[in-house]
């Protein structure tokens, strides 16, 4: 019709689309159904987002504000170009496998430049719905300290640390590092270990292999169980005549199987660690094997070396081993022709990659840049497959998804590295994604969500771990609102919040309605922290592959609850079970105090507990 009018010399007419409802910007970005109610659709009303409708593009000038946007008394917030299109990132949280376009370059190490961007002048942008989903960035680069660090949870960006949260800023990094370096020598010392001095009998090897298959491999199934049995059988039947990578892998399996068999070993004397001689013999082979380092078997050996060191509670050593595996598996995945043609090789590489991804994320609390390289690749990385109901495969996939949801809004930065999400809409959106993640879990690993400490007993360690991690992540997501309630006057943050000199009553710088909303979010953080400690207690009695992760999360939640315990400004959100949860965290940590690094944390806990009024009979 328009072409006919053009030929007749008549002006072009833009006919309206035959569509009754036009979705708002938020629903467009999330690809959700919009009922197009005015002034705010139902979805935006539920999540508290600003609902904005746009006109047809040909009728809107570039500098014209979008219609139906409620007037804002606040001036437009300055934002760096790096923070545009945040909604697209939140959309990717749910789909996980769908590549979304963001302004940040994801090639190579481009995202490390983020810390330099904070020092540059922010570029003003027009107000939009994206402003409601903005993520606060630190005003200066975080300090990358090697060692356990909770400083990033102690304050909001642009504000000083509240006095009640100063215990989170304890600087023991150098002491932690010295302890770790001293203990690293003990694990490897002892001289040459000859294979003739080891018990390599068929029955003993079979027994240790069974412990490995039952208690270790289901946590991170890097090798198919049948393949694992074939490798061990081949090495045992040959009498370990060939000291190759298959023999090395077998020795690592025997070492870890020994720890799994003696899982109640609480002492921290490396010479007495179960399977330590198998471990040292395997290290001798893998360190000397230079001809086959660019193979998947070498990657698997390095991963198992990291597994054993995690059983030993040696995070820095475990990181060194898993990093070698990460670098090699990335190289192997670049062999695209073989990856495409060889399905077995592809699945082995994918399992190795995602195992490295999970382990590096668990070690991120100790080595801040852990997982940063792998984070560059995971958007396009396939998930591993299994052609049968393989033990642990559902847990493996669920944990991968959980980690990706949690790490994506932070661009892979450590959860304790001063990267604070301070917008209620963002926190609620991420929490919603976790609820959907839980709703879609397979029956074999699905756990019941309780809202009180008297929770259902679970017998499956995978379900226990997932439930405890679920609570811990939600507690961390909502923790910034506890910090916000304690924040007093200081320099304004990037979101334009102004502090107030008054404490008590309302939250400084917020209206009464905003105070009530923030109190609700802060209350959820403390509730989830309590639930985390009650949920994880069954896993703290003995060693398992992810005990280090459980100890890390337990100490973090215990410290957060202790800092918030009986604080006047938080009197309206105190949880009645906080005291019991703190005692659980302390008792479970005490079980592992033979570890020198953990003893440092326990001493910190006990000092703070005494300061909070826990009597000598409880803390001794």
TrEMBL record:
<dbReference type="GO" id="GO:0008270">
    <property type="term" value="F:zinc ion binding"/>
</dbReference>
<dbReference type="Pfam" id="PF00172">
    <property type="entry name" value="Zn_clus"/>
</dbReference>
<dbReference type="GO" id="GO:0000981">
    <property type="term" value="F:DNA-binding transcription factor activity, RNA polymerase II-specific"/>
</dbReference>
<keyword id="KW-0539">Nucleus</keyword>
<dbReference type="GO" id="GO:0003677">
    <property type="term" value="F:DNA binding"/>
</dbReference>
<dbReference type="InterPro" id="IPR053181">
    <property type="entry name" value="EcdB-like_regulator"/>
</dbReference>
<feature type="domain" description="Zn(2)-C6 fungal-type">
    <location>
        <begin position="23"/>
        <end position="53"/>
    </location>
</feature>
<protein>
    <recommendedName>
        <fullName>Zn(2)-C6 fungal-type domain-containing protein</fullName>
    </recommendedName>
</protein>
<dbReference type="InterPro" id="IPR001138">
    <property type="entry name" value="Zn2Cys6_DnaBD"/>
</dbReference>
<dbReference type="GO" id="GO:0006351">
    <property type="term" value="P:DNA-templated transcription"/>
</dbReference>
<feature type="compositionally biased region" description="Pro residues">
    <location>
        <begin position="67"/>
        <end position="78"/>
    </location>
</feature>
<feature type="region of interest" description="Disordered">
    <location>
        <begin position="59"/>
        <end position="83"/>
    </location>
</feature>
<dbReference type="InterPro" id="IPR036864">
    <property type="entry name" value="Zn2-C6_fun-type_DNA-bd_sf"/>
</dbReference>
